Amino acid sequence: VVVTNPTVGGLYAERALGGLEAAGFEAMLVEVPDGEVYKTLDTASRLYDEFVGAGLDRSGAVLALGGGVIGDLVGYAAATYMRGVPLVQLPTTLLAMVDASIGGKVAVDHPRGKNLVGAFKEPLLVVSDPTVLQTLPDVELRNGLAEVVKAAVVGSPALFAHLEQCGIEDLVWIIEQAIQVKVTVVEEDPYEAGRRALLNLGHTFGHALELLSGYRMRHGEAVSIGMVIAARVAARLGLCDLGLVGRLVRLLERLGLPVSFSGREPAQVWEAMATDKKRRGGRLRYVLPRDIGEVTVSDQVSREVVLAVLAEEEV
Ligand SMILES: NC(=O)c1ccc[n+]([C@@H]2O[C@H](COP(=O)([O-])OP(=O)(O)OC[C@H]3O[C@@H](n4cnc5c(N)ncnc54)[C@H](O)[C@@H]3O)[C@@H](O)[C@H]2O)c1
Ligand SMILES: [Zn+2]
Q: Who lines ligand 1 at CB under 6 A?
């Protein structure tokens, strides 16, 4: 069963179904509406109906054709239907190729929070075909590039240098490198007991900015600004030098990503971070860069330091 949305289905469903049929598989297509608002248990429940109707069992497979929303939703349905049926991820956004389709996290949203209901479900196979990115809107491409830069800072100086020198030339190589960083980190720590948290670089601040914007700010934009704030905090604590902040800012700007925010009081951002954390029952942990390819986690960052950085950030 291939699950997609009308946007992606209109472009690529025929190609996916044709390929499966040519390879001797019996395949059917199911569409769900496009958008994060449909990443819900309701939609998952509709998918179960379709799976039952199609006579799907564990000898079959579910294929998620689309961006991260489809991957998370369909992955969750595949993880839970009949206690789990085989899943294939066919990511069609840059973000889904380098991030969402890798690492086995699947989830739907709950009215009280994003990704609150989910599972770990390793796909049998992930197929990324970069040619589909030709139809991806620019703003979605940039969204994914923020996670590519994150991957570079977390684990690939070579990728960072390439982006600095050549921008998004050799996109296939860029995607491979970003995937490699995520795979390496996730393989060391599949259930996020430790190192996997490094992939949250820029996300503590990013989530707060997304929340404050009522989710009008895009995830990649929020992560981009979040990474700059994290680097500024690290510099202030003497973990890295200011040169690193400058390099990061220049690269993000070159890629068309925002590096600062306005219209929010530092205290508001701090509050949003603290509330978000309290809701998740954790301490505020910051992922801080020491160098390109070397990041560290700290829960020892004081409110004063964060507020000071946010205040200089605002101008
Ligand atoms: N599981 C994880 O580890 C993980 C990691 C990061 C993000 N996510 C999740 O991923 C989701 C965001 O994913 P996203 O950024 O891919 O957004 P998305 O899935 O909403 O896709 C963005 C838009 O692009 C369209 N689209 C997709 N592929 C296209 C193509 N090739 N050509 C033209 N249009 C195309 C989609 O229909 C959609 O309208 C969020 O729900 C987030 O929680 C999950
Ligand atoms: Zn992210």
A: 5, 7-8, 11, 34, 36, 39, 66-70, 72, 92-93, 95-96, 99-100, 103, 105, 114-115, 132, 135-136, 140, 143
Ligand 2 centre to CA of 219 (Å) is 7
pTM attached to this predicted model: 0.95
Active centre residues (catalytic): 83, 105, 147, 182, 192, 196, 200, 203, 207, 219
Q: What pLDDT does residue 282 have?
A: 67
Q: 61-106 pLDDT, tens per residue?
A: 999 999 999 999 999 999 999 999 999 999 999 999 999 999 999 9
Span 47-64, pLDDT tens digits: 999 999 999 999 999 999
For every residue of the chain, which 3-state class applies, written as one string?
A: CEEECHHHHHHHHHHHHHHHHHCCCCCCEEECCCCHHHCCHHHHHHHHHHHHHHCCCCCCCEEEEECHHHHHHHHHHHHHHHHCCCEEEEECCHHHHHHHCCCCEEEEEECCEEEEEEEECCCCEECCCHHHHHHCCHHHHHHHHHHHHHHHHHHCHHHHHHHHHHCCCCHHHHHHHHHHHHHHHHHHCCCCCCHHHHHHCCHHHHHHHHHHCCCCCCHHHHHHHHHHHHHHHHHHCCCCCHHHHHHHHHHHHHCCCCCCCCCCCHHHHHHHHHHHHHHHCCCCCEEEEEECCEEEEECCCCHHHHHHHHHHHHC
